Amino acid sequence: MYHPDLIRHPDGCPALVLNADFTPLSYYPLSVWPWQTAIKAVFLDRVNIVSNYEREIRSPSARMKLPSVIALKQYVRPSAFPAFTRFNLFLRDKFTCQYCGSLGDLTFDHVIPRAQGGRTTWENVCTACAPCNLKKGGRTPKQAHMPLHVTPIRPTSWQLQEHGRRFPPHYLHATWHDWLYWDVELEA
Fold it and tell me: Pick from 165, 161, 176: which is nearest to 25 by CA?
C-alpha cells in the first residue's frame, strides 16, 4: 500500500513541538523542529514522542521512525510580552495597513513621527502599506487626516498567538490535527 510518508525526504518531515502541557509552543510561527533537532532531543531525553511519521531513518545498527509530534518533558513558561519585531508588529496588526486596510506592500509607521519626538515602541508604531506611509510622511495621523483603524497597543504573547491562529501554515501533517485548532484541510 502506498503511503506518502514512506517516500517523503526526511527534510520534509518536521516535528511539531508541544510544551509539557501538550499545547503548541507557538502557533505563529508554528513551533516545528527539523527532524535532526527532534531526533537529537529524543536521544538527549528532553522530549517524549507523541506520534511518528511512517518514514524511517537508519544507521548500521538501528532504525527509527521519524517523530511527527514531540512534547517537551519540562514545561517552558511563555513570556508574558513578546519582543518588538517587525514580524510581531505585522502579526499584532493582522498583516493589514492600519490606515486603509490594504494587505500588500507592508511597512511600519511611527504614529508620532521620530522627527516630532516619537519613539519606536509598541504604542507608537503600526503597520502601514507603503503608499499610506508615503502619504502620511512626517505628520501625525491627525495632521495627515488619516485616522488609524486601531490604536496601537503593547500586545501580550497570548494575543499574538490568537492572531497567529488566523494564519495556518501551508503544511499540516495529519498527526498534528489533535494538537492544533485551525479549520483547514490537513495533508495525509
Answer: 161
